[in-house]
Amino acid sequence: MRENRHRSRRSRVITGAVILVLAATSLAAGPASPAGADPAVARDADQQLYAFIDDLEARFGDDPGYAGVHLVNDVPTVNVTSQALAAQLSSLGAATSVVSTPLAKLESAAARVAAQAGGSVLVAVPDISENRLYVTVPGAEPDARAAEAVARVRAARVPVTVQSAGDVVDLAAHYGGWGITSNWRGPTQPTLCTAGFNARNAAGKSVIITAGHCGPVGSNWFSERIGGFLGAMNRRNYGGTGIGVNDWGIIGAFAGVHHTPAQIKDAGVTKYVVRHRQPVEGMRVCSTGRTTGTRCGTVTHFAPGRYIATNIVHAGGDSGGPLYRRIPGTINVAALGIISRGNSSTTHYQPIFEILDTANLTLKTRQ
Fold first, then answer.
1. Considering only Cβ atoms within 10 Å of each terminal Cβ, which end of the chain, N or C, has fewer?
2. Which residues sit opposite 247 in a β-bridge?
């Protein structure tokens, strides 16, 4: 599925302009921003794009002919179902595309499939760029319950694509610091990021914490190392101003995933997360990403509630990876944050405290 963004009539879903700073795609072997570039520059450009899309959604999101906003070569394009709305948007300088299905109809169909199919469907989400509903099932083919739910929305003339998630990965077999991959940009442009820490949400369900800029809500994520489906991005926060602010994403794990302690790979060795804490300047820390592996250094700055800076250097694909402090004489670590962005001399991290508090999560720890 490709990048898309829309305003839900129930709640605003942020799946917007994603500037991949320490995420990697098949088109870029290294960081998306040039070595030594100021990470704030990419952030400012990103915020301008967000503001433009926000304005479009605020003005037209409740129009019956509105079908969502997506990016075409980084240009916001508004899907509409009426020529009249297309003409109105075009007069304001917005790019438009006339499609067949309103966003409200896609959202309603997604809710019906989820309610009717239950656990037979892992995720049902509108894809704005293709103007259709994507339904992900755990096996190679939908079972009878999922097939019936899909048939009902198709009968209502909602375009649907059913895709298999493959084998669901047990989190006991997948570690923080390992790569995760998604084809939300399309089958020829895989996005690579890194898993951070395992946690539980308020309902007790398993989740994986990674970087918010890695992909939109609804994007499916797979284990790069061992294959298989991990879950879908069900919540993300990527916005605000300043370096390292509001950049986290939550991948919700699905059926077959057990509540295991948070485990990470530290220079290839399995380590257990036993607690989380706030860093202090000068603290010796380490972080792990799927591209550069484990690197260690010191905390150079800590802005509580905003970001952590270190002299560690990471590269494209490391986004979302864990930042932690080794506990001497043990195989345990203390969680500090996740990799967000950086340049040739520093890396910025999202503090773990802020993620847990804002998303109402509990870090899985070894007792």
1. C
2. 238
Q: Which domains, from first to last, does the chain contain?
A: 4-98 (no CATH), 103-164 (3.30.300)
For residue range 252-293, what is the model confidence (pLDDT) as tens digits? 875 445 546 688 999 999 999 999 999 999 999 999 999 999
Tens digits of residue pLDDT in 318-339: 999 999 999 999 999 999 999 9
- pLDDT, position 245: 55
pLDDT the model gives residue 125: 78
pTM of the model: 0.67
The total number of residues written for the chain in this structure: 367
Burial of residue 303, with CB atoms counted within 10 A of its CB: 0-12 exposed, 13-18 middle, 19 or more buried: middle
Of 3-7, 83-87, 89-93, which range is least confident? 3-7
- Which phi and psi (to 5°) does residue 256 adopt? 95, -10
| Strand order across the beta sheet in which 4-7 lies | 12-13, 4-7, 66-72, 75-80, 95-98
Cα–Cα dist 315/126, whole Å: 32
